[in-house]
Structure formats: C-alpha cells, structure tokens
Amino acid sequence: MDLSIFIDGDQGTTGLDLQNRLRGGEFRVRTLPASLRKDAAARRAALNESDIAILCLPDAAARDAVAMIENPSVRVIDASSAHRTSPGWVYGLPELDAQQGERIASALRVTNPGCYPTAAIALLRPLTDAGLLPRDYPLVIHAVSGYSGQGRAGAEAHEAGAGAHSLKVYGLALEHKHVPEIEAYAGLTERPIFVPSYGSYRQGIVLTIGLHARILPADVSGARIHECLGDRYRDAEHVHVMPMSSVSPMTERDPQVHNGSNDMSLAVACNERTGQIVLSAVLDNLGKGAAGAAVQNLRLMSRASQPAS
After folding, report:
1. What's the pLDDT at 308?
2. CA–CA gap between residue 200 and residue 158 (Å, rounded)
3. Which SMART domains does UniProt cross-reference here (predicted)?
4. N or C: which end of the chain has fewer CB within 10 A?
C-alpha cells in the first residue's frame, strides 16, 4: 500500500534525519514549503490528509498538532516527549516486551521513546520483569550524548563556536523530563536519579547504570544479569547484547560506534572482588534514539495497513 506520510516539523534535527532515512523508500513523504510551515490551515489540511503523521515538534506544538487532527483514520507517531506517559498512547519501543511490536503495529497513536530512556529502559526492564532488580532500587543513571541532542539550534551554535564545550553536565535540578518515562516503562516504583551530559562530539550516546551486588537479591550476579539480557534480546533485530568474558573483560565503550544506524548494544561489566556491576548501552541519539526509531515504528504500523492476502 502506498501510504502518505506527513512530517510536521521537518526542519528540526529529527525531521531532517527522518527525511534522509525515508528518501527513495516505500512511502510517499510530504512536507510543507517554508512559506506554509507556520500556517495553521495548511498544517491542519496536511495532517488530516495523511495516512500517518510524524510529529517532529516541541512538546506544545505536538499537542496542538494532535488537536488539529479530525480525520479518525489518521495515525500518529509523536517524536516529542509530549505524550510519552499519556493514556491512549502506545510506547514506541518495540523491544519493550514480546507483545509491544504488535501493539505498535495496530496503534492509532504511538509516542516515540526518548533517546536516553531507550537505553535505560532496555537495560532495566528485563531485570525488573525477571525479579533480578528490585523495583525500588536506588538507581543513579549517567549518560553522555553528542551535542546534537541539544536540537538543531544548539548543534549549530556549538559548531559555530558559540558556547562550545568539551563536556557539559546538566539536569542537576533533578527534574529532567525523561525521568517519569524511565520510571514508568522500566517498571520502577522509585524515581531514579538521572544525570545527563553533552560531549563535544556530534552524535551518539553512552549510558551507564551502577549496581551493588550487596543490595540485590542474594542469587543475582553480573553473569545472571547478562544472561537475562541475552535471553530477552536474542531475537531482536536492533538490540544486541555484547559478550561477557572474565578472560578479556570490557573496560571501555565508544558512544559513536552505532552512529548512522538503528542499532543499540548493551553490556554488563562486573568486579566480583568489589561486588560492583555496571550496565551500559550505546546508541545513536539521532537513530535508535529518534529518527531511526520513528522509521522502525512506521514500518510496524504500515504492516497493519496492508490489505489481507
């Protein structure tokens, strides 16, 4: 089926990357010319004439766009954080559990995950589901993203030398908008501490979570956590669990190794002497963390639009 896709907010970082990923593909992609991007009537018409609308907008504008949709057959993928914990919206992380891909495929409204939450939830949800991580564990999550995570204006300012930095830690008010999303979909009952930062490279995320074996259930080890993640993602196309070896243990991770792809890799490092475990995830904040995830969800949703054979 030749689906019509309208990208609202096509000139932002996610919107531009999304167009590149969809160019020459199986969908008819529509955007508005520059003269009409802020024209409410033109946006309303484009939204209601599409099969699937992808919103690459700030949160308030995304809510406005959804309110403009009157055609009941229009389906939506929202790449903003406006609806990530809203009732009636399906969370767009196909790897969340065994049924999530089908939920996305049949959904009318899909909310794309945040880039940091994609990494944190992929590491944590299998462990809380399996009872290996207490849901009230006092988690501290650290992450470094490329500066493109600041959005198009922030990235352009960085590249122009205005406010450029080698590393910038932020979110220290402990009110980052991604935290409720992580808490909800990782299966937690206590709010984690989340400390994000921007590096001086353009894109790619490395996220780490430290665990203490002494406050985990008695039979939980780094090896058992690794086995749990391996079992969960064994058949996942885009999520890969890296080998764990006591002979040649992992000592470093490069946040840029998956740039340009929709892949994410997870790893477990542990020190049995100290009783400490570190979980880590690497992904492209513009790929699996944004436009790549939107394309993955779009392809799932398009399956449900195919005529029965």
Report:
1. 40
2. 8
3. Semialdhyde_dh
4. C
Distance CA 70, CA 286 (A): 30
Bridge partners (DSSP) of residue 28 are 4
Asked whether the beta carbons of 272 and 259 are under 8 A apart, the reply is no
SS3 298: helix
Residue 43: name the closest of 23, 21, 62 by CA: 62
**Can you list the alpha helix ranges (DSSP code H) found in 168-259?**
179-185, 222-232
Radius of gyration of the chain (CA): 20
Please report which residue ranges of the chain form alpha helices under DSSP H.
13-22, 40-49, 59-68, 100-106, 115-130, 151-159, 179-185, 222-232, 292-303
195 to each of 135, 139, 140, 208, how far by Cα in Å? Answer: 20, 11, 8, 10
pTM, entire model: 0.94
* Identity of the amino acid at 46: A
Two tokens, residue 45: 């018409």
Residues 134-171 have pLDDT tens digits of 999 999 999 999 999 988 888 888 888 776 789 999 99
DSSP three-state, residue 239: strand
80: which 2 tokens? 């903003």
Q: Which of 56, 115, 228, 270 is catalytic?
A: 115
113, 125 contact by CB (below 8 A):
no
Asked if residue 176 lies in contact with residue 120, where contact means CB atoms within 8 angstroms, the answer is no
Q: What confidence score (pLDDT) does residue 209 get?
A: 98
The confidence score (pLDDT) of residue 250 equals 81
Q: Which two tokens stand for residue 206?
A: 């490395």
Q: Token pair 């492209």 is at which residue? A: 284
* Exposed / middle / buried, residue 211 (Cβ in 10 Å: 0-12, 13-18, 19+): buried
Q: Does residue 228 have an active-site annotation?
A: no
